[in-house]
Design a protein that fits this description.
Rossmann fold, alpha/beta, 6 strands, 8 helices, 204 residues, glycolysis
Length: 204
């Protein structure tokens, strides 16, 4: 028996569109982002996926993404668990700055290190390692036991909180995770065995 884990990054937010570092700031989805969330909901429905449990972060772009997916899947009146452990990486002092302006000020290489290195945090913020230090224990305590029991779990979260989970689930190195991008609205679907290990990556 395997469990099914569906990880979905929120649809495009207003700050993704404006190219701003977002982190724990709380912008809404754009119209395009709403469409991405709905399209992913439709794809999950078409694949016959009916989750048993639903998780999201404390931020509205992920929560709204989950709501729109549920609408498309025709699912109502379910319990949604929200937890800040699934929030985006905290971008600290970069939050609200334009990413191109930051590159002009600090240089391409430094900004890439802040954005994608494993263990170098942006000033006042969290590295991917710091993000994993809160995201993984939550996954292991709350979500993994459900997967081991054969349940289907849908998680709507963020680029970097999901990269932290993907790194652990796929057993990627810090070098491998550096190059791993998750697009807005993109679903990643895993089958997880009773031992908690990745059994299969599913293509929708
Ligand atoms: O700004 C952010 O919070 C994230 C995701 O949009 O950006 P990045 O791709 O730089 O990690």
């Amino acid at each position: 028996m395997t469990g099914t884990l569906i990880l979905v990054r929120h649809g495009q937010s207003e700050w993704n569109l404006e190219n701003l570092f977002t982190g724990w700031r709380n912008p809404n989805l754009t119209e395009k982002g709403e469409g991405e969330a709905r399209a992913t909901g439709k794809a999950l429905k078409a694949a016959g996926i009916v989750p048993d449990l639903y998780y999201t972060s404390g931020l509205r772009r992920a929560q709204h993404t989950l709501d729109l997916m549920l609408e498309e899947m025709g699912i109502q009146n379910v319990t949604i668990t929200r937890n800040v452990a699934l929030n985006e990486r905290d971008y600290g002092d970069l939050s609200g700055l334009n990413k191109d302006d930051a590159r002009a000020k600090w240089g391409e290489d430094q900004v890439l290190i802040w954005r994608r290195s494993y263990d170098v945090p942006p000033p006042g913020g969290e590295s991917l390692k710091d993000t994993a230090a809160r995201t993984l224990p939550y996954y292991e305590a709350e979500i993994l036991p459900q997967l081991k029991a054969g349940k289907t779990v849908l998680v709507a979260a963020h680029g970097n909180s999901l990269r932290a989970l993907v790194m652990a689930i796929e057993g990627l190195t810090p070098e491998q995770i550096l190059a791993r991008e998750i697009a807005t609205g993109e679903p990643t679907v895993y089958r997880i065995g009773a031992d908690g290990a990745l059994a299969e990556t599913v293509t929708l």
